[in-house]
Amino acid sequence: METHAFKYPRQKINGIWLIIAGIAMFLLLIKYNGYPNIWPFTIAYVLGMIWQLNPKTREKLAVGPGTMEQKKWSNFSIFLLAILVFVSFQFFADDYRTCWLLIILAVGVHFLPFIPVHGKLMLFLSISLIINAFIGLIITNVSLDVFFVIDGLIKILFGSIFIKLSPTNF
Q1: Mean pLDDT value across residues 147-168
Q2: Residue of 123 and 57 predicted with greater confidence
Q3: CB-based contact 152:22 (threshold 8 Å)
Q4: How far apart, in Å, are the Cα atoms of 67 and each of 7, 10, 64, 153?
């Protein structure tokens, strides 16, 4: 039996994860004392990460293992995100709107190193998220919720595209 190696074996998992992350963004619309309630978002995000990294998920939905090079890019991307989010909190924690928009920007930037892992479509995802964040940083009289919704919709759209384009293993 011939096996075929796919260049981006985890596109389906990435697509589902993006949809989960997009839904998590909508949970930021839930308010506590007038501010985004981070707990529903955090719970959905963490559960999504646990699901995504679970070996059973990867066994069922991936069409093969990632390469060592892809693992290095993935690790670098997560490290980059952690640093950028830390910097956002360090310097802008007192301005929740700017802090959240910088986090959205950081997420957009951290998708760039995922291009070798999931393909060139990640570039367009990244650009879309970065533009959304920049518009929010520039146009300050528009509700932060608008940018949460746009961010969530972008992730859900690209997640759906990744699922549709991904090779299937069943």
Answers
A1: 92
A2: 123
A3: yes
A4: 9, 11, 9, 30
125 with 158: CB under 8 angstroms?
Answer: yes
Residues 73 and 112: their CA atoms lie apart, in Å, by: 10
pLDDT at 43 over 80: yes
Closest CA to 113 of 86, 83, 153: 83
For residues 42 and 152, the answer to whether their CB atoms sit within 8 Å is no
More confident residue, 147 or 170: 147
Q: Return d(Cα 7, Cα 125) in angstroms, integer.
A: 19
Is there a contact between 98 and 90 (Cβ–Cβ < 8 Å)? Answer: no
Helix (H) or strand (E) segment spanning residue 69? helix 68-92
